[in-house]
Amino acid sequence: MRKLLAVLTTTALAALGVAAVPVATAGPALALDNGLAATPPMGFNDWNAFGCGVSEQLIEQTADAMVANGMKAAGYQYVNMDDCWALKERDANGNLVPDPAKFPDGIKALADYVHHDGLKLGIYEDSGTMTCSKSGGFPGSLGHEDADALQFAQWGVDYLKDDDCNQPADQQNIPATIARYTAMRDALQKATAQTGHPILFSICEKTDFGVPNSAWPEIGNVWRTTGDIHDLYSSMVANFTKNVQLADLAKPGAFNDPDMLEIGNGGQTDAEYRSEFSLWSEMAAPLIAGTDLRSASAATLAIYTNADVIAVDQDPLGKQATIVSDSDGHWVLAKPLANGDVSVALFNQTDTPATIGTTTQAAGLPGTYAAYSLRDLWTHATTETTGSIRTQVAPHSTVMYRVSPIRNPSQVPPNVSLDVSSVAALTAGETGTVTETLTDNGLLPVEKVELDLTAPQGWTVRPLTPTHLGVVGSRKTVQARFQVVAPVPDQLFRTDQITGTASYTWLGVRPESTSVTQTAVTSPPVEAPYRTFSSATDAQSHFAESGQQFGISGAGAGLSTSSDAYSAIYRPGAVGTSSTIDTEVSSQQGLAGSGAAGLLVRNDMTGSGTGPEGVALYASPTGGIQLQWTSTGGTHVDSVAPAGGTHPMTLPVHLKLERTSSTTYTGYYSFDGTGWITVGTATVPGQSDTQDAGLFVTSHTSGSAATASFDGFTVADGAGTPPAATSYEAEAATNTLAGQAKISSCTACSGGKKAGYVGKSGVLTFNGVNAPADGDYAMTIAYLNGPPSRQAMVSVDGGAPQTLTFPVTADFNTLGVMNLTVHLTAGTNTIEIANPTANAPDIDRILVDDRPGAPA
Q: Tens digits of per-residue pLDDT, 262-307?
């Protein structure tokens, strides 16, 4: 009914000759003269949360949710649909056609619905021949700019996101790219002239073909400056560090765009999401929510609707923050505001608590005032300072202030800084010391100062110095020290919260308090004959040993640089010229890109950056299972086998490194610990006859640690070739697909492909599975399974099937393994995977031991 009313209202206005023309208002000169984006656009886009799952229903429900949950009231206007909304072919007149299955009422009716909610509708297109969708792409606008722009305006579309995929060869250069987007800009302006309906122009070009960002302020209202964001802290930081350098380009009507917000999608902590929102607002970036707003949590909505932070983003001056300082992952940004205030952001990129600060003068405020107010935009508390802007910032967190001169400092409490020395270095079971430091940054003194430190049950905390410290004057500092003993945990890593608190009064009677909470990670100590070492100095490293379980948490850039930044548990001098080193990598968290965890052998494990690197066998999110080594005897690895991703990483995985001579190593992996696949063989010069061997981790993200756990770590004399397994790919031409089963691409899979739609009428049969003799053989199925868990029946040579339940692997591009035993006959066998009544998981490959009798 509401949709019908909206359509009737629009029709009635048209009949009366009333056009929806925007009212011009006075304001700063705009870069692109279309009257739009005087401040950065705010809204929603479906891609991050839904991919190609866009539909009329989703957009309508999202618009309704934005009204109901306070997003609209907070300033969010645009409800934007991304790729996959159109049919794959234009109509006979060359027009784009909305997919009728997804948009049964069409785009114009959808725009009317969204407008009736008091919101605006956004749409997606591409400057090439096809859009970016990996499902085959949809028609692009190249050569159709005028027609598409007019169609969008006639539909009532308010926002166009224009991507940059599938360009002809002659278009892949700077002049052609600029010309494509100029053509769409001009087409949008012509469409506005014809219809009276303006459309905000969002360029999604991402510096393709070397086009500088400086090309876009006169062409687009906003333009992408980074690659696609992902719901990972490392991805958010990467986009921030690129975009923050471009402050000189931003102005009303033209803003840098570091991509949509991931807040609420579950891949980061609330502190990291608050950092994302703070940094995007400080950079005057578009605030485009990329989560399901229909079911967003209260915590997510509290971030999205923080009026104090939004006001910084939407400030009419339109300035982007500049960098005041950037040292070792500690950032200070300052953004001038229209009323003369300055917004200051203190961002701690690292894994360790850090005191970060600047001064009002360095932030751009005049130095002629006795005091300044600091409004914390997340706690909403206001204090006064004589000029210091300084506080302890938790890892991955951002403190954001609005700073302005204050004429009567006695109206608000003085600003104090409370610093707690790092608890990250505490060792379980050993006595440590934690120091609390309080500084009065305000003009007024603080009185009756008391410092306290609290820890969870099982910890011992005892003051070593007085904690009642009386009066602390302006710009003065006091300290208290505490003896602390952490309990030895019964797990590899235990996380506890330690809180330092300062209570005090101001103006004699008004009570105040402030606190700092730090995360303490403790672990059972590593015992002889094992030792620990870390050259990853950008974050605190932690090591754990419990029985045959080992754990390492550490950061570091990796092994492929001269710094060799890694963390390791190792055995010195344990490897001779004929040795076997093995472990099982049980789990990994926080590894990014080329981050890795596995086995490392070198002359001296502590010789990072100075001695020969040696050889490493590891599992990596992007490289898969690889063998790396130095072919020159240098301080970093320069050779790898096989090429990245050939053996995709699936955990847990057994790793075995055999040293068969003074210079020769061969690496193997196994999912069942019995049948082994060869990773590669390395010739490593500069190796002494006696080597150190270790377990290692490197996160490949500056300032952010990754954690890996290992089951077992042995070094034994003697080397040889372990029992082998044979890998059979699901996509092999020798296999048989029946029913709905089909081969599709898979970035996480061996060979880059998998068999999907197995189950119901879909059957996958592996033909030609060889067995040297009759017997029971260990077999591993590498599979992919988004929620929920699924079953499959596995049968050999048409015999009675085994029914297996496959746990969820997060999604259909994340691998898991299932180990089982099958009975094979001598010669070739067939192995069938099916489920007659329900869907089975997708299948990447099977691995079958080359010898009978191995248990699964």
A: 999 998 999 999 999 999 999 999 999 999 999 999 999 999 999 9
The string of DSSP letters for 175-241 reads HHHHHHHHHHHHHHHHHHHHHS---EEEE--TTGGG--GGGSTTT-SEEE-SS---SSHHHHHHHHH
Helix (H) or strand (E) holding 312: helix 307-313
Indicate the residue type of 678.
Answer: T
Q: Percent helix, strand, coil in the chain (nearest 5)?
A: 15, 40, 45
pLDDT tens track for 528-552: 999 999 999 888 899 999 999 999 9
Q: Which of 39, 34, 37 is nearest to 283 (CA)?
A: 39
The residue-averaged pLDDT of 244-272 equals: 96
Which string of b and e fits 188-209 if b means at least 16 CB within 10 Å?
bbebbeebebbbbbbbbbbbbe
Q: What is the DSSP letter of 319?
A: P
Q: What are phi and psi of 192, to 5 degrees?
A: -65, -40
Q: Which 3 state secondary structure label does DSSP give 561?
A: coil
Chain CA centroid to CA 835, Å: 36
pLDDT at residue 25 in the model: 34
- Tens digit of pLDDT for each residue in 798-811? 999 999 999 999 88
In this model, does residue 461 exceed pLDDT 90? Answer: yes
Beta carbons of 833 and 843 less than 8 angstroms apart: yes
Does the structure show a pLDDT above 60 at 22? no
Q: What are phi and psi of 318, to 5 degrees?
A: 70, 20
Long-range Cβ contacts of 171-179 (<8 Å, 24+ apart): 171/128, 171/142, 172/208, 172/209, 173/209, 174/209, 174/210, 174/211, 174/215, 176/209, 177/127, 177/205, 177/208, 177/209, 177/211, 178/211, 178/215, 178/219
Partnered with residue 570 across adjacent β-strands are 531, 694
Within 8 A by CB and 6+ apart from 595, the residues are 558, 588, 620, 621, 697, 698, 699, 700, 701, 706
Structure tokens at 609: 């950056």
Using the predicted structure, report yes or no on whether residue 12 has a pLDDT greater than 60. no
The reported pLDDT for the residue numbered 190 is: 97
The CA radius of gyration of the chain, in Å to the nearest whole number, is 31
CB atoms near residue 629 (< 10 Å): 29
Per-residue pLDDT, 9 = 34
Under 8 Å between Cβ of 481 and 434: yes
Q: How many helical (H) and strand (E) elements, i.e. helices and strands, does the chain have? A: 11, 49
* Lookup result for tokens 């031409």: 733
Q: Up-side HSE of residue 759: CA atoms within 13 Å toward CB?
A: 17
Separation CA 690–CA 581 (nearest Å): 13
- CA–CA dist 779, 777 (Å, integer): 6
DSSP string, 625-664: EEEEE-SSS-SS--EEES-TTSS---SSEEEEEEE-SSSE
* Residue whose tokens read 């033209």: 254
User: By CB neighbour count within 10 A (0-12 exposed, 13-18 middle, 19+ buried), where does 267 fall?
Assistant: middle
Active site residues: 163, 228
